[in-house]
Amino acid sequence: MIIPRTIRRIKERYDHKGGPYAHLFESYEGDEVVSLDCETTSLDVKQGEILSIGAVKIKGNRVMTSDRLDIKLKAPESLTGDSIKIHKIRASDLSEGIELEDALEQVLEFVGNRPILGYYVNYDIRMLDKFIRPKYGFSLPNKAVELSHVYHDIIKWRFVGGNVDLRFDTISKSLDIPMLERHTALGDAITVALMYVRLKHGEPPAVNC
Fold first, then answer.
1. Contact status, residue 147 vs residue 170, Cβ threshold 8 Å
2. I want to staple 3 with a disulfide (CB 3.0 to 4.6 A). Which of 8, 170, 175, 206 is the partner?
3. Cα 32 to Cα 116: distance, rounded to the nearest angstrom
4. Bridge partner residues of 68 (DSSP)
5. Could you tell me which residue ranges the Exonuclease domain spans (predicted)?
6. CATH for 5-145, among 1.10.3430.10, 3.30.420.10, 3.30.70.260, 3.40.50.2000?
7. H/E stretch holding 128
8. In this structure, are residues 138 and 150 in contact, taking their beta carbons and an 8 Å threshold?
9. Backbone φ and ψ of 69, nearest 5°
10. Separation of alpha carbons 54 and 40, rounded Å
11. How far apart are CA 141 and CA 117, in angstroms?
12. Which of 167, 187, 168, 193 is nearest to 114 (CA)?
């Protein structure tokens, strides 16, 4: 039986209320957001394996680049030539990678109960949940913040009756934010963080209509 997500979260909160991860289910009241990105072997969550995880904290209008997570995992068997074309990560790049269990522990500790920001963030959360749920008995309960939605909500009034281009490269260009180490988990996480800060605290982006 498929349990609706809302009901499952209530059950998970109850099941873990006295455990070591109870704080993850508490409402977050601070001013920090965690920009997070995963590089994987496939864009299909069911087939994909995580290769690297990058995350950086945002506090108010500052990207805390000194407070970041940059994890490389051991190369999975599914790391093939076809998947390398997507993320440009080779097995040799993961020679010092850590075990998935250690990576998940680091992610939970780093993120805490802060909101998670990303570009197509639900994909990254679903990829992490794929491995977190069997091990810990819960899914990430954090609020998700989708960068493309934030961007769309700010500029949609300029495109009455038209479509808003929500491609990563387009958003970066319109915000005048350089793409740092594109297709690396940490590089994408920092770039998304800079975009978010610009959208929330900077001048409205210049957009070609």
1. no
2. 8
3. 10
4. 56
5. 32-205
6. 3.30.420.10
7. helix 121-136
8. no
9. -125, 130
10. 12
11. 13
12. 193
What's the rounded Cα separation, in Å, for the pair 77 and 79? Answer: 5
Instruction: Specify the DSSP element, H or E, that contains 92.
Output: none
Are 72 and 92 in contact by the 8 Å Cβ rule? The answer is: no
| Residue 169 exposure: Cα atoms within 13 Å on the Cβ side | 2
Give the ranges where the chain is alpha helix by DSSP (H): 5-15, 81-87, 100-111, 121-136, 147-155, 168-175, 185-201
Q: Give the pairing type, strands 50-59 and 62-72.
A: antiparallel
24-63 per-position pLDDT tens digit? 999 999 999 999 999 998 888 998 889 999 999 999 999 9
Residue 53 carries which side chain, given as an amino acid letter? Answer: I
pLDDT digits (tens, 9 = 90+) for 92-149: 666 678 999 999 999 999 999 999 999 999 999 999 999 999 999 999 999 999 999 9
The identity of residue 57, as a single letter, is K
CA distance 103 to 41: 16
Residues in the chain: 209
- Domain assignments of the chain as residue spans, ordered by start: 5-145
Q: What amino acid occupies position 133?
A: R
- pTM, two decimals, is 0.87
